[in-house]
Amino acid sequence: MNRRQFLTYGGAGAAVLSASEEAYAQATATRIDLSVEPADVELIDGRVVYQLLFYGAAQSEPRPVIRVTEGDLVTVTLRNNAPEPHAFAIPGAPGAEIAAIAPGGRGEVTFRAPRGGTYLYLDPLNAPAHRLLGLHGALISTPRDGHTPGGALTPFSAETLTPATRLLFDAMRDDPTARFVGDPWRPAREKIWLFAQIDPALCEQAELRRPIDGAAVQRTFAPRYFTINGLSGFDSSEAETVKPKGYVGQPLLIRNLNAGRNTHAPHIHGNHVLELSGVGADGSVVVRDNIIERDTWIMRALDRKDLILPFERPQDIPPGAWPPKEEPFPLRYAMHCHTEMSQTAGGGNYPQGLTTHWELLGPTRPTATS
Amino acid sequence: MAIDFTKTGVSGEQTFDSFGCNVWHVNPDTPDLVRPDIRFTRQVHDGADVLMPDGREVRFWSFSDPNATNADKDKPFPSPLIRVRQGQVVHTTLKSAKNTHTIHHHGMDPTTFNDGVGHLSFEVSGSYTYQWRPANAGTYFYHCHKNTVLHFEMGMYGPLIVDPPEGPGTLFTGGPRYDVEAIWVADDVDPVWHEYNHDAGLCGEDVALDRFSPRYFMISGVPAPRTLTDPRVIVRAKPRQKVLIRLINGAYSVLRVAFDLDATIVAVDGRGLGRAASPWSRPIPLPRGTSVDMTSAQRFDFLIDAPATPGTYGARLEFRDWGTGEIHAGGRGVAESRIIVA
């Protein structure tokens, strides 16, 4: 089977595959059906490139977000509808690997969902080539118990929480003495920012079925397009799946992943973020015990970082100008990679690269703690 | 005069064109204006050549200070320091002179109109006064945010330091004190890019702004290897003094930083580590001979105790490619300097 799909840029949303989104579901069996599909993808400047993409069973959207609950038995099946072998792995999730599947074949693996946090699923074959051709996606593991002793909910397993994480999540509460006065963090307050890079020359090599040497790709990869959740520039700035929104006092979790090869320098305007986690040498989620507030953070190849965007009052507005009377809400703030080559598409077109923005809808929550 | 926000990215219709190619160009009043405690003017300055060690002259753009009586009036690059106290209301007036530009005070969190991002607000063709009030002492910078990929590389940036109410000598209230201060801006220069015109690459033109091959490596406007000797870069301290190095990565490289002395990272991105408002953070030791990586636009503040013994101690900045991770220019992409204790 060699079915080709044509994706337009705006169509690349984020389907969600999940057997259970309950935070405290009992251990259950979850089954995720994926396939590898060749696709023609239209980029932000109209150029069309050949990519290889993971699809869910419905095949409605590429690179579906997989949601599981820590400890659940998860079965992933993978059908390979591409003309070369493909495989599957989740760094940091022991046992979550499917060895190479021949074209037209099918593979399967069952594993325990890893500890609460953000993971990247990918095709590890010919690394990093297949991943860079598009075979990657985000897997979110919800902790079975993510509470701090103080009762605040976190995205991590309670036994992995550090004193710093406990302090921070307890500091987001409806209490005038708290650092982040407002709502506690809630699981629904989340955005996934999955970064990727596209080199049309590599896409063409794959389309023409020329041999691809992963080690050579690691050296010569020359990306010309830079995406968040498959989107760039104007499209990623307007996409609801990418753009955070909220009022002062509504903290949001950013699950940031880099499936590309190049190191990104995401820079956010309007608020600093708090960096909660990183990746250990074995791919596991490392919850930080030194949480640093940053306006710019480093995202190397295969990095996964969870960050809190606090949605606090932008700190550098004069008190006499807050809340603004003349300048209207929403206040809108850019997030873009500061290694600015990533702000281009096809060698120019600033800022049609890796960028989005976030919106501060108002100075107070419409109905506090609702 | 009422501000017509519909003529800006704030309330105007956001389109593919307004996002990049045809951004709003206006010169509005500052909304919600309050009385400033301190004012700065920055005028676009678009022609100064820097002589590189190989004899090549490379063109830089910058912001100058037209009110200055010193070199800042016609300072080529980097742009003059903006230094203020925490809590001061600051007005920065940009005079674009020709073409359009903006000023983004990087690390400051003001309103959208005062943040200097063209596609979300506007680019300035004449003049605009940015209003902000820094709440956190620390190390920042300011830069043009138009066609940023090019304008930032062309040198349109300068350091921005916020002192705590106590003034210079203390990094932040409750934080470390220092006797000697250095402000270092690391930069890498691809001379090919410095031949481009102002709007290169906008509106569909492929000028290969995704290819960056730097050949010169600078600290605070001084190209290596002069960084080893130039008084604008080297640090002089007396034994047992506390040295603060405020390092801004203005390069498009991943900067690998190492010192011949034990150092401590005491602040990141204008936020003191371990300060009262941030009990979940603490300073990070950087023992001599170990390194730390800084990506583009990050700022780390390093505190170093000058040893009791006089001597010369090295600092090494490696400029590494964002893709391969290798040192640029076949291993030449290094800028070294010295801390001289005497």
Can you give a write-up of this model?
Chain A has helices at 129-132, 163-170, 200-207, 214-220, 233-238; strands at residues 5-7, 16-18, 29-42, 48-56, 65-69, 73-80, 86-89, 97-101, 106-112, 117-122, 136-142, 172-173, 180-181, 190-198, 225-228, 245-246, 252-258, 266-268, 273-275, 277-279, 285-287, 293-294, 304-309, 331-337, 355-360. With 370 residues, chain A is mainly beta. Chain A has 2 domains: 5-143, Sandwich (Immunoglobulin-like), CATH 2.60.40.420; 158-191 and 221-360, Sandwich (Immunoglobulin-like). In chain A, the strands form 7 sheets. A 6-stranded mixed sheet of chain A has the order 15-14-17-23-19-22. The radius of gyration of chain A is 20 Å and the shape is globular. The model of chain A is unreliable at 9-13 and 19-25 (pLDDT under 50). Helix content of chain B is 3%, strand content 37%. Chain B is built from 2 helices and 21 strands. Chain B has helices at 16-21, 148-151, and strands at 38-51, 57-64, 82-85, 90-95, 104-106, 127-132, 138-143, 157-163, 180-189, 216-219, 222-223, 235-237, 242-249, 254-259, 263-268, 271-272, 284-286, 291-294, 299-305, 311-320, 334-341. In chain B, strands 9, 10, 11, 13, 15, 16, 17 and 19 form an 8-stranded mixed sheet that branches. In chain B, strands 12-21-20-14-18 form a 5-stranded mixed sheet, with no helix packed on it. The longest helix of chain B has 6 residues, at 16-21. Chain B starts with 15 loop residues before the first helix and ends with a strand. The model of chain B has no long low-confidence stretch (mean pLDDT 96). Chains A and B meet through helix 2, helix 5, strand 22 and strand 24 of A and helix 1, strand 5 and helix 2 of B.
